[in-house]
From TrEMBL:
PANTHER family according to UniProt: LD13476P-RELATED (PTHR10760:SF2), TORSIN (PTHR10760)
GO cellular component, one term: endoplasmic reticulum lumen
Keywords annotated in UniProt: ATP-binding, Endoplasmic reticulum, Glycoprotein, Nucleotide-binding, Signal
Source species: Araneus ventricosus (Orbweaver spider)
Lineage: Eukaryota, Metazoa, Ecdysozoa, Arthropoda, Chelicerata
Record protein name field: Torsin-1B
GO biological process, one term: cellular response to misfolded protein
């Protein structure tokens, strides 16, 4: 975990809350030989705000092979749990695989992507493994880490950020108390994998992590980083040209990128040449 905070701060643009709360949560969890329960973090925000990116950075901090490690298990809602008619089979799969993976590594990382596209009820299958049990059938799950990724709550997070901007306040002044209750309530009530979930109702999610919508200045950093990776000159004129191809919200202010940094790679493909 050495240097993790600095790495997040440098490469996860515009996410001061994520940088702080994720670092603190991970450090506290892995420093304990016997935590009281598995660490469960739920990441929320608009698409392209960095939820997947942050998850991969966590995997890289924990395992030498990063997200390619055999101890990192990535579930995607539309790929792994696509059919409403097979909810029981999906639940059985999770209750079979999580014990198997934990027996191989007592500090495994489980990432559930597209939680907002999962059917309600599936994720409750993991409840025993994230609850306050020392062990279940001889297996200790308390050192595991679970991360949920969801677009649910993105509108509430954006509304808070927009109101701060309207009031002339710095987005760095937004704190967890401004947002976390809104996310937990939205996750429980919005259609998706956490709707009416026991793990929400029983307070088994340790922290709801808000990913703020990205402003033009953050988008420009993403563009500069992408150009640098490709060995191209990241001059201001080129960066501005590419940034102007992104759709921003609300239309009258063009404040937040609707797609975050998700489309930057393609935009650089198309517009990333001074000759155009």
């Amino acid at each position: 975990m050495k240097g993790f905070y600095a790495h997040l701060e440098e490469y996860l643009y515009g996410q001061h809350l994520v940088t702080w709360v994720v670092t603190q949560s991970l450090k506290a969890h892995i420093s304990k030989a016997e935590p009281s329960k598995a660490l469960v973090m739920s990441f929320h925000g608009w698409t392209g705000s960095g939820k997947n990116y942050a998850s991969k950075m966590i995997a890289s901090a924990l395992y030498s092979k990063g997200s390619q490690s055999e101890f990192v298990h990535w579930y995607i809602g539309t790929r792994d749990f696509p059919h409403l008619s097979e909810i029981e089979q999906y639940r059985d799969r999770l209750q079979k695989e999580i014990p198997e993976y934990t027996k191989k590594c007592g500090q495994s990382l489980f990432v559930f992507d597209e939680m907002d596209k999962m059917a309600p009820g599936i994720i409750d299958a993991i409840k025993p493994f994230i609850d306050f049990y020392d062990e279940i059938d001889g297996v200790d799950y308390r050192r595991n880490i679970f991360i949920f990724l969801s677009n649910a709550g993105g509108s509430e997070i954006t509304r808070v950020a927009f109101n701060f901007w309207l009031d002339g306040k710095d987005r760095e002044d937004i704190n967890m108390r401004n947002i976390e209750p809104l996310i937990s309530q939205g996750a429980f009530n919005e259609i998706g994998g956490l709707q009416y979930s026991q793990i929400v109702e029983k307070n088994l999610i340790d922290v709801y992590v808000p990913f703020l919508p990205l402003e033009r200045t953050h988008v420009k950093k993403c563009i500069a980083h992408e150009l640098k990776i490709r060995g191209q000159d990241a001059n201001d004129e080129l960066i501005d040209k590419i940034a102007n191809q992104i759709v921003y919200y609300p239309p009258q202010f063009e404040l937040f990128s609707v797609s975050g940094c998700k489309k930057i790679s393609h935009k650089v493909d198309v517009y990333g040449s001074d000759s155009i």
